[in-house]
Write a structure and sequence with these properties.
It is built from ten helices and nine strands. It is α/β, with parallel strands linked by helices. Strands 1, 2, 3, 4, 5, 6, 7, 8 and 9 form a nine-stranded parallel beta sheet that branches. The protein is globular. The relative contact order is 0.16. The structure holds pyridoxal-5'-phosphate. The site of pyridoxal-5'-phosphate has 14 residues, from β9 and α10.
Length: about 230
């Protein structure tokens, strides 16, 4: 993708974020754009940094490890953050703690315990989100709604993890309005947990196809790949 095209895309996405935030009576700054760089090459990531993007996400630890090295690793000092948004296996917890500022996909107590152990070893407080599964059929990853409070309580007692909020990935629909109930549900879960005394400021929800709806429903992080970098080549 040419740099011009990339700049165009980023500008359009920012504009849509701002418009949706304002429509929702929220400040555009309350929404963080997380650029999803899976399958995107390092050069293009560099261009995106030059264009002003600061938050990036990968869904595979191995791919992220290749990308977040050398040049790009030094950018951490420039306020760049890396997020893990794909399923994490326990045996990769150590590398994940090493690489990522925010791990968005914690969905079992066992994984949380391993992350806590690794974070403790590195002397790091690892920021995490709990991934919730709201689709009743074909549940792949994420904690089911009914088990969420239990997991939250468990993680809350871990000294090297800090839970900052919730993440979800609804099933794909062409019509973005179809995902609205999922976003609304995630927000309600968060609000209910806050009523119980937990603090969960972040809601990571919304992708290229539906981030505006997600913002209207309270998203504080939108994870956008295709709308910035174009269609992914497999
Ligand atoms: C790939 C991916 C995204 C971005 O999807 P786009 O439709 O390309 O914006 C967001 N979240 C997760 C978890 C992903 O795997």
């Amino acid at each position: 993708m040419s740099k011009i095209q990339l700049l165009d895309n980023i500008e359009i996405v920012y504009k849509k974020i701002a418009d949706a935030a304002i429509r929702a009576g929220r400040s555009p700054e309350a929404v963080n754009l997380i650029a999803v760089t899976k399958t995107v090459d390092g050069c293009t990531v560099r261009d995106a940094v030059d264009a002003g993007l600061r938050h990036f996400a990968e869904n595979r630890v191995q791919e992220a490890r290749k990308k977040i090295t050398g040049d790009i690793s030094r950018l951490k000092d420039a306020g760049i953050t890396w997020h893990l948004i794909g399923h994490l296996q326990k045996n990769k917890a150590r590398i994940a703690v090493d690489l990522f500022d925010l791990i968005q996909t914690v969905d079992t107590l066992a994984l949380a315990e391993e992350l806590n152990r690794q974070a403790q070893k590195s002397g790091k407080i690892q920021r995490v989100l709990i991934q919730v599964s709201l689709a009743d059929e074909e549940r792949k990853h994420g904690i089911p709604r009914d088990d969420f409070i239990g997991l939250l309580k468990g993680i809350n007692g871990m000294s090297s993890l800090r839970v900052e909020g919730l993440m979800t990935m609804p099933p794909f629909f062409d019509d973005p309005e179809m995902t609205r109930p999922y976003f609304r549900e995630l927000r309600k879960m968060r609000d209910d947990a806050e009523t119980m005394g937990f603090r969960l400021p972040e809601l990571s929800m919304g992708m290229s196809n539906d981030f505006e709806v997600a913002i209207l429903e309270g998203a504080t992080m939108v994870r956008v790949g295709t709308a910035i970098f174009g269609e992914r080549v497999k």
